[in-house]
Structures are given as structure tokens and as C-alpha cells.
Design goal:
By secondary structure, this protein is an alpha+beta fold. It is built from 3 helices and 5 strands, in the order αβαββββα. A hairpin with a 3-residue loop joins β3 and β4.
Length: 160
């Protein structure tokens, strides 16, 4: 077994903010999904790197759900944390919230789950510290991530 010290989700959590500018929007005045996806990938990647303290690359976007539009001028708050860790991979959960700058009104706009793999100096997958959820919310996210990992493996097995 690994001698890596377990970490809590809070130790690697990342929160960042963006402002939606006109060049990042479609003709309807809402942010392009691809722009939001790139922000999600960057923020999730930072959380993965903070957890493993190594290079971490995106292995997959397991789910992304656009729940509400984000308009030009909105502030975008992106929160990412490691939900689950396998031997060399990490599932990172991301929540995207739009915030109206003048009222402060917030709405969950997007949720996503991504898988990252930690790489060693030779660009080979390497062991990652285990995750140790503490709060009830972290434990719920961990349990849900376990189910997603299992379902994904079962689906891949059926598809071969």
C-alpha cells in the first residue's frame, strides 16, 4: 500500500472567479459552453494538482450539466474539489455559479465531474495520496463518486 499521507478535500479545494465578456458569448448574450468548459477544466486541474502535488492531466469529463445560462457581465464563481481518489486518478467535482454583479443574486449554472491522472517525472501514472472526507457533504460526494467510478467501469466492460 502507499505510504502517502491522506488529504482532506478541503486541502486541495480551489475557488476562482471570472467575468463573462462579450467575446466569450454567443449571439444570445450567454456564455459559450466551451468557454465555461475550459474554465471548469482549468479549475479542476488546479484542485487535482494541489491534491497530488504533481502534474495532473485530464483523463475524462465524466459529466457536465448546464443548468442555467450565464450572461455577459455576470460574475462566474467556480469551485472544485477532489471527491474520490483511486491509485493514480482523482475525480474532481466542479460547481459553477453565476452571480449578478449588482444584486449579488446567485444561481447554480453548471455542474461537472472530471477525472485526472497524476504523472511522475517520466510522464507515467503515479500513486496519489488517498482522500479522507471529513464533513457530511464530503462523505456524500465521496459515496456518489464511488458509484460513478463503478458504473463507468461496468459500462466500459460491457462496451468491449
Amino acid at each position: 500500500m502507499s505510504d502517502l499521507k491522506p488529504k482532506t478535500p478541503g486541502e486541495s479545494a480551489v475557488e476562482t472567479r471570472y467575468l463573462v465578456m462579450p467575446h466569450q458569448a454567443n449571439p444570445y448574450g450567454t456564455a459559450f459552453g466551451g468557454v465555461i468548459m475550459s474554465w471548469i477544466d482549468m479549475t479542476a486541474g488546479m484542485a487535482a494538482q494541489r491534491h497530488c502535488r504533481r502534474e495532473a492531466v485530464t483523463a475524462g469529463i465524466d459529466s457536465i450539466v448546464f443548468k442555467a445560462p450565464i450572461r455577459i457581465g455576470d460574475h462566474v464563481v467556480i469551485k472544485a474539489s477532489v471527491n474520490y481518489v483511486s491509485r493514480t486518478s482523482m475525480e474532481v467535482g466542479v460547481r459553477v455559479v453565476s452571480e449578478a454583479p449588482y444584486t449579488g443574486k446567485q444561481a447554480v449554472a453548471t455542474k461537472a465531474h472530471l477525472t485526472f491522472v497524476a504523472l511522475d517525472e517520466n510522464k507515467e501514472p503515479t500513486a496519489v495520496a488517498p482522500i479522507e472526507p471529513e464533513t457530511e457533504e464530503e462523505k456524500r460526494r465521496y459515496a456518489n463518486a464511488q458509484m460513478r467510478v463503478k458504473a463507468r467501469k461496468e459500462l466500459l466492460k460491457k462496451m468491449q
